[in-house]
């Protein structure tokens, strides 16, 4: 697996006539830090038959993912020079050394992990030999202990009513089809899509049920033809129609995609989110599953 290029904030390293290299170390064998390092807090439980077993008290991520890269000029660069001019150095530093986090993706020769990216920024240090800048040392810091798979878009169409015999066991109301979403995240837990758009197709009270969730999404007094938007990131709701009392009509439980890998792994049941609704509608959203693999 050979990393040939990378993309950051919409531009590629190769656009600057550069390649990834190893200038400060020549050892071709190394242990790769791929992030997702969990810190386990334990306690020696000597009371259990004097077994000296350690009981797990808590666990979690303590550090964001970071990695180190080095770059140099490509032998095929337009100028033919193997050192960086002042102008070239400034352009690369301006590109990589950002105060805000941007999308970063490695590009491998064999096309592996093409759908994995990270959010972060770089600190850049020039590598100087014989008075010339011959390379740059890059330290990348991300916004999480892991990366992400490219966003997956889902459109759940609940415009057709199931047979009258199929009703919700609790409310006895009709159910309008079902949509099964397989969560591809490598991390157990839940993920909120940034934005959920709900196209309402009939008047009434909308309940969105996820078989993996303990609580439903509830929006009362919906109007046929309106589009309700849930901003899950900032926990906001809005409608494109006049909807008096919208804020009171919503129970403020936002739609989420859930993975319970640590509970069950039979037939992928740990990641099957089965959505059903109580009102005719169409629901659209995108989300990025967690990828627990770093730069290799």
Description of the structure:
It contains 2 helices and 22 strands. The chain has helices spanning 86-96, 246-249; strands at residues 3-8, 11-12, 18-21, 38-45, 53-61, 66-73, 102-108, 116-129, 132-142, 147-149, 152-158, 179-182, 189-191, 195-200, 204-210, 217-222, 227-231, 236-239, 257-259, 272-277, 281-287, 290-291. Strands 1, 2, 3, 6, 7, 8, 9, 10 and 22 form a 9-stranded antiparallel sheet that branches. Strands 11-21-14-17-18 form a 5-stranded antiparallel sheet, with no helix packed on it. Strands 12-20-15-16 form a 4-stranded antiparallel sheet, with no helix packed on it. Strand 15 and strand 16 form a beta hairpin. The chain starts with a strand and ends in a 5-residue tail after the last strand.
Count of helical regions: 2
Rg on CA atoms, Å: 25 Å
Mean pLDDT rating: 83
Compute the separation of the termini in Å: 8 Å
How are the elements arranged and paired?
Blueprint: E1 3-8, E2 11-12, E3 18-21, E4 38-45, E5 53-61, E6 66-73, H1 86-96, E7 102-108, E8 116-129, E9 132-142, E10 147-149, E11 152-158, E12 179-182, E13 189-191, E14 195-200, E15 204-210, E16 217-222, E17 227-231, E18 236-239, H2 246-249, E19 257-259, E20 272-277, E21 281-287, E22 290-291
Antiparallel strand pairs: 1-2, 1-7, 3-6, 4-5, 6-9, 7-8, 8-9, 8-10, 10-22, 11-21, 12-20, 13-19, 14-17, 14-21, 15-16, 15-20, 17-18
Feature tags:
45% strand, 9-stranded antiparallel beta sheet, mainly beta, 296 residues, 5-stranded antiparallel beta sheet
Describe this structure in a few short sentences:
The chain is mainly beta.
């Amino acid at each position: 697996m050979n990393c040939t290029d990378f993309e950051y904030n919409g531009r590629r390293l190769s656009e600057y006539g550069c390649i990834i290299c190893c200038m400060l170390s020549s050892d071709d064998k190394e242990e790769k830090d791929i992030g997702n390092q969990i810190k386990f807090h334990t306690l020696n439980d000597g009371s259990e038959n004097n077994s000296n077993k350690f009981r797990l008290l808590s666990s979690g991520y303590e550090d964001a993912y970071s990695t180190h890269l080095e770059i140099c000029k490509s032998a095929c660069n337009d100028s033919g020079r193997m050192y960086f001019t002042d102008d070239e150095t400034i352009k690369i530093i301006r590109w990589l050394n950002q105060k805000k986090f941007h999308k970063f993706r490695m590009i491998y020769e064999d096309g592996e992990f093409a759908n994995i990216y990270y959010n972060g920024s770089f600190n850049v240090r020039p590598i100087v030999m014989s008075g010339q800048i011959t390379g740059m040392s890059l330290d990348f810091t991300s916004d999480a202990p892991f990366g992400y798979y490219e966003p997956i878009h889902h459109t759940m169409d609940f415009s057709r009513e199931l047979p009258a015999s199929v009703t919700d066991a609790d409310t006895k109301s009709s159910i309008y089809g079902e949509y099964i979403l397989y969560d591809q995240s490598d991390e157990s837990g839940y993920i909120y899509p940034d934005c959920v758009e709900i196209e309402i197709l009939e008047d009434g009270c909308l309940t969105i049920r996820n078989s993996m969730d303990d609580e439903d999404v509830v929006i009362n007094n919906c109007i046929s033809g309106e589009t309700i938007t849930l901003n899950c990131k900032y926990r906001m709701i809005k409608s494109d129609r006049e909807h008096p009392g919208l804020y009171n009509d919503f129970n403020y439980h936002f739609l989420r995609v859930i993975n319970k890998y640590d509970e069950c792994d039979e037939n992928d049941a740990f990641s099957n989110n089965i959505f059903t609704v109580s009102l005719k509608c169409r629901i659209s959203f995108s989300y990025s599953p967690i990828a627990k693999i770093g730069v290799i």
